[in-house]
Design brief:
The complex is a heterodimer of chains A (about 575) and B (about 150).
Chain A: H1 2-8, H2 11-14, H3 19-34, H4 66-82, H5 88-92, H6 99-106, H7 112-120, H8 127-134, H9 137-142, H10 149-163, H11 165-176, H12 182-186, H13 193-206, E1 214-215, H14 216-224, H15 230-240, E2 247-248, H16 250-264, H17 279-285, H18 294-298, H19 314-317, H20 322-341, H21 349-357, H22 362-391, H23 408-421, H24 447-452, H25 467-475, H26 481-491, H27 499-512, H28 523-575
Antiparallel strand pairs in A: 1-2
Chain B: E1 14-20, E2 25-32, H1 37-57, E3 69-75, E4 79-85, E5 91-97, H2 105-124, H3 137-150
Antiparallel strand pairs in B: 1-2, 1-5, 3-4, 4-5
The chains are: A mainly alpha (about 575), B alpha+beta (about 150).
Chain lengths: ~575, ~150
């Protein structure tokens, strides 16, 4: 019976099951099941919805107002065929006779792929999800709560797949033919709410401010983790960075991410950015009500094609009533997903996302999904780490330097040396390797004390004038000088002695002191030494600040000098006549 | 681009090549029509010398004062060669058939400007490493449309 149906509905003629053909085919099936001859005219009859076997959810097999459905259906398919304006809203309106036919018809993006999914995803154990995947309406279908045509229409879609193997096959074949109108290709490029949320979360992991950009290099690292070849990533970037500024705003990022996901799932990248991925569109779309993408979740392995139910974007248009059901479905889907994909539950969103994204085999999907979440998590964490590290170097002056584990004493030495040398750069050059004993060290610390404090990674520079004592301490630790100096320079900039930092230091010193390898000294000596160290550090801090300021002044003066010299040069030819 | 049109000797030949510093190897080559391409490659390479000469001639002056558009590098009997160099020493060379008298200097300038803009767009792509061959589809489209205008 299937071949005749395919013939009658025109699929054979056209070569594939377009939406219209599909609808007609379904109607014919209903007709056949009702005993009507398989003719074009039959569909004009009022037929009950076709019954498809293996549907566990009988409740879903609610073919309600079939009468009007069919009549309306006919026009609907045609209308919808033109453009994928399958508004879920229409479908959502279950009361409308149209909705049921619309749902299955509309919900899958007129693309054969959706049809395909219907048959394939018909793992009814979790079949709900399968249904969902195919149609936005399926939500309605699935949920017994929805006693509407919508659900039935959803069944519609799935059932044919089940019963008509030829249909399925043809559908799968069709799937390959991406010959549908642009509307067909638009669907895969719609971003569902779930996807959008996921993208936004990823964006946040890279850039907390949603209104700001992600820089090119950050985005590059992130997308490179998706393991797509660089030329493709380059093309994706070209497509998504609409303003060509080398950075991605949130909508641009969502588009890019969506393209990456699509590519990973087997879609060919378009030559131009689909309309639904344009930043303006995405920004407007973000306000639309989203239908649960539980469809995606449930969608898992069963689908052979790489097509994701991007038409889930229809969910955007779904009616709100499906939301409660969706949550239920979500749970189902989640379970399914997890089983199917065995993705770490840590990234719940990801499994769901990836579920519908990875349309290939379950294995592929799971692999892809695993890879993706992992990559994402890695990327996000690595990016965060990188960002954090990037933030570390420019420590502000107030930084208490508690964390510095380098002996501040060394810094002192360096500071002195630097100052005398009038080092220009704010970054004091590495101190001479072996610090000669500082004769000027006025502190009465014993040399032994100096030795004691070597490795002390003391927070550098506390402001005090007794830098002399510090020098001794500094002697012992040449190696850490550069780092310390850096800290010092960071802390510099303030000439006023900072009592508070001192206090901080002192407070931190006790904590640091334990680091001191002053094992040999008695506690008393330790304390004395530590006090001296503290004082030295404070002096260091003051001197360091002074140093940096002077260096800045020096730089400015140099700049002025250069400017004047260039001016002079320019004027010279004129004067020398 | 040569698909639907039959090219005869009168058709203007347009070759655009981008060279990158410092070794001046080509990043992008597109010519219409595609026969005799080698000849144009050769021409363009030799014109690089002229470009370098022009750049060095203004070497003393500040870079800002140097105009990016170098103008007609040298005319031969068959074609004219135009040059353009960016501030980062990336050179664009265009070879136009001499018989195409409709192309005026302004148009050549605008074409170079378009090339330059597209090149900067490519640079903004973090996945593009400066010095790589240019495989951008957007760039190709732009060049195609430009050449179709001329041809």
């Amino acid at each position: 019976c299937c071949p005749p149906i395919t013939e009658v509905c025109g699929a054979k003629r056209v070569g594939y099951f377009g939406p219209a053909q599909f609808y007609i085919a379904l109607k014919l099936i209903a007709a056949a099941q009702s005993g009507f001859p398989v003719r074009i005219e039959s569909i004009k009859n009022e037929l009950p919805l076709p019954r498809f076997m293996a549907l566990k959810n009988d409740s879903e097999v609610r073919y309600g107002t079939t009468a009007e459905l069919h009549g309306v259906k006919f026009q609907v398919p045609h209308a919808t065929l033109e453009k994928n304006s399958y508004k879920r809203t229409d479908e959502g309106d279950k009361q409308e006779p149209k909705s049921p036919p619309m749902s299955p018809i509309c919900s899958p993006p007129a693309s054969p792929s959706t049809y395909q999914r219907v048959p394939l995803s018909y793992g009814y154990g979790k079949s709900r999800s399968g249904l969902e995947q195919q149609h936005g309406a399926p939500y309605e279908v699935r949920h017994s709560a929805h006693q509407q045509d919508g659900p039935s229409s959803g069944n519609y879609g799935t059932k044919p797949a089940l019963t008509c193997s030829t249909l399925n096959r043809s559908l799968s074949v069709e799937r390959e033919q991406q010959d549908s109108s642009t509307s067909y290709s638009d669907d895969p490029w719609r971003i569902t709410e779930e996807q959008r949320d996921y993208y936004i979360n990823q964006f946040r992991s890279l850039q907390p401010d949603l209104n700001s950009f992600i820089s090119g290099s950050v985005a590059k690292n992130f997308f490179t983790k998706s393991k797509l070849p660089i030329p493709e990533l380059s093309h994706i970037w070209e497509l998504s960075d609409v303003d060509c500024d080398g950075a991605l705003t949130l909508p641009e990022f969502c588009a890019a991410f969506h393209l990456v996901v699509a590519r990973k799932n087997g879609y060919q990248l378009p030559e131009t950015l689909p309309e639904t991925l344009l930043p303006e569109y995405l920004q407007a779309a973000s306000l639309k009500p989203m239908r649960d993408c539980t469809l995606f979740d449930s969608y898992s392995e069963s689908l052979p094609g790489g097509q994701q139910t991007r038409d889930f974007s229809r969910t955007e248009k779904a009616s709100a009533e499906e939301i409660p059901d969706n949550s239920a479905l979500l749970q189902d889907a989640k379970k399914d997903d997890k089983q199917a994909l065995k993705v770490s539950t840590a990234l719940k969103m990801i499994p769901k996302e990836f579920q519908h994204l990875t349309v290939k085999t379950a294995a592929q999907e799971s692999n892809a999904l695993k890879a993706r979440p992992r990559s994402r998590s890695y990327s996000s964490t690595s990016i965060e780490d990188a960002m954090k590290k990037g933030e570390e170097p420019p420590t502000p002056p107030p930084r208490p330097q508690k964390s510095h584990s380098r002996a501040s004493s060394l810094d002192l030495n360096k500071i002195f040396q630097q100052n005398t040398q009038a080092v220009r750069s704010g970054w004091l050059p590495p101190p001479p390797p072996a610090l000669p004993p500082r004769p000027s060290v006025s502190q009465t610390e014993q040399p032994s004390e100096v030795e004691l404090h070597p490795q002390t990674n003391r927070p550098p520079s506390q402001a005090e004038e007794n830098s002399a004592a510090k020098k001794e301490v500094v002697l012992a630790q040449p190696p850490s000088k550069p780092t310390r100096r850096k800290l010092r320079t960071e802390a510099q900039g303030l000439e006023t002695p900072e009592l508070s930092p001192t206090i901080n230091v002192t407070s931190s010193l006790p904590t640091v002191k334990p680091h001191l390898p002053v094992q040999k000294q008695s506690s008393k000596q330790k304390r004395a030494i530590q006090t001296a160290i503290r004082k030295n550090k404070e002096a260091n801090a003051v001197l360091a600040r002074l140093n940096s300021e002077l260096q800045q002044q020096l730089k400015e003066v140099h700049k002025e000098r250069i400017a004047l010299e260039t001016q002079l040069e320019q004027l010279r030819p004129v004067t020398v006549l | 681009m040569a698909s639907a049109v039959t090219y005869t000797a009168e058709w203007p030949v347009l070759v655009s090549i981008i060279f990158s510093p410092p070794q001046n190897y080509p990043l992008y080559i597109r010519s219409v029509p595609t026969e005799n391409e080698l000849k144009f490659h050769y021409t363009v390479h030799t014109s690089l010398d002229v470009v370098d000469e022009k750049i060095s001639a203004m070497g003393k002056a500040l870079v800002d004062q140097r105009e990016l558009y170098l103008g007609l590098l040298y005319p031969t009997e068959d074609y004219k060669v135009y040059g353009y160099v960016t501030n980062s020493k990336v050179k664009f060379v265009m070879v136009v058939d001499s018989s195409n008298t409709a192309l005026r200097d302004n148009e050549i300038r605008s074409m170079f400007r378009k090339l330059h803009n597209s090149y900067t767009d490519i640079m903004c792509n973090p996945f593009y490493n400066p010095g790589d061959r240019i495989h951008s589809r957007a760039f190709d489209n732009m060049v195609n449309s430009m050449m179709m205008q001329v041809c």
